[in-house]
Amino acid sequence: xxxxxxxxxxxxxxxxxxxxxxxxxxxxxxxxxxxxxxxxxxxxxxxxxxxxxxxxxxxxxxxxxxxxxxxxxxxxxxxxxxxxxxxxxxxxxxxxxxxxxxxxxxxxxxxxxxxxxxxxxxxxxxxxxxxxxxxxxxxxxxxxxxxxxxxxxxxxxxxxxxxxxxxxxxxxxxxxxxxxxxxxxxxxxxxxxxxxxx
Length: 198
Hints:
The protein is α/β, with parallel strands linked by helices and 198 residues long. The chain is built from six helices and seven strands. The longest helix has 35 residues, at 2-36.
């Protein structure tokens, strides 16, 4: 009986040592994968204007019926966040968008949408603390910037040049648009592709 207990203890210790080796090997593989997998930026659609093209000014009305000009030369960069009251991902990104715009200097945030009724958009703006003078309804704006899915964002510089745009589903996607502008590349994917080619 005593021999059986000693044998079972030796077997258990052998299994524990094998499991430790397996966990160590898996942890190393996770580290290697983490180094190989680069961050993915906003998903840039193939249709619509290209990065570096000038965006002609588009005059539209805010929810307060004030004129808002999107595109063209201005004093500040414009970050346009396209949303919809029925889009759950848009709702989850609103606090992130608001925080990013407050952290960035020289950046005007514009919320853009179309469809629905004016009252629906006004209620949505009130529910989520969106300033109504920054919220525009414009089908033309979405068509001009090639918006085909939501949530979508675009960044236009002071000269009216499109610096970044894409489908944004999380904070990293939003930050990648600002990072692409700072790095002077069309997208993070393009930058990483160039780095790998070198």
